[in-house]
Specification:
Number of helices: 6
Strand content: 15-25%
Distance between the termini: 39 Å
CATH class: Alpha Beta
CATH architecture: 3-Layer(aba) Sandwich
Shape: globular
Order of helices and strands: EHEHEHEHEHEHE
Radius of gyration: 17 Å
CATH topology: Rossmann fold
Oligomer: single chain
Number of strands: 7
């Protein structure tokens, strides 16, 4: 039996990178998936490729009204939502705090933090109708500790916020059989990170004890586990996937 049979999932930032990988694996494992992203061309192409169990909706994750439309669409197409993967995120400019603009700060926080609040707020009533569900908030190793080289204070702050919100909502909605967990990736091979290493594993990969960056599918397998019934007693916890990067 496929590991996500009967699940109805929303995955944000699903047009490329980790989100695309999550979407592909979820559909392959039996879920019905609503993919959302601002990249309409890539999103529609991916949904078409994935077939009848995938739909795409252009979606600004920083808009509460947009989130309401997303949940309504998922319910109309597939039924009550049982999985939410809050995957959308940005890094922002790599600058020191005194050089960080108000505009850039607010944008990073809106995409990385506010969107996860909006997503949880709007999807929980649908999960209550379904009798439960699983929310997976994608954070970062930067949400576990802040180290020299972290890109900027907004990124670090928003990723810590994701971790804290995860725990709060897990405590509130556990009685409704809604589980909430955060995933904290380290260096992953995505379009955003591809230029940071070379074919011999140099650059930032040298900082990782396993001496490589992760493939997106490795993160997707963890996200799928948290979305599935196999993790039915796991809630309110952080799940680091970083090749040992912050083990020390």
């Amino acid at each position: 039996m496929a590991r996500l049979d009967g699940k109805v999932a929303i995955i944000t930032g699903a047009a490329q990178g980790m989100g695309e990988s999550h979407a592909r694996l979820f559909v392959a494992e039996g879920a019905k998936v609503l993919l959302t992203d601002v990249n309409e061309e890539r999103g529609n192409k991916l949904a078409s490729e994935l077939g009848e169990n995938a739909r795409f909706l252009k979606h600004d994750v920083t808009s509460l009204a947009g989130w309401q439309t997303v949940v309504e669409t998922a319910e109309k197409e597939f039924g009550p939502v049982t999985v939410l993967v809050n995957n959308a995120g940005i890094i922002g400019p790599v600058v020191e705090t005194v050089e960080f603009s108000e505009e850039d700060y607010l944008k990073v926080v809106a995409v990385n933090q506010h969107s996860q609040f909006f997503g949880m707020k709007t999807v929980i009533p649908s999960m209550q109708k379904a009798g439960g569900g699983s929310i997976v908030n994608i954070s970062s190793t930067a949400g576990m500790l802040s180290v020299v080289g972290s890109p900027n204070l907004a990124y670090v702050g928003s990723k810590f916020a994701s971790r804290g919100m995860t725990k709060h909502v897990a405590l509130q909605y556990g009685p409704d059989n809604i589980r909430v967990n955060s995933v904290h990736p380290g260096y992953i091979k995505t379009p955003m990170m591809a230029a940071a290493t070379d074919e011999t594993g140099g650059g930032i990969a040298d900082q990782v004890p396993l001496r490589r960056m992760a493939e997106t599918i490795e993160v997707s397998e963890l996200v799928l586990f948290l979305a599935s019934n196999a993790s039915s007693y796991i809630s309110g916890t952080e799940h680091v996937i970083d090749g040992g990067l912050i083990a020390g």
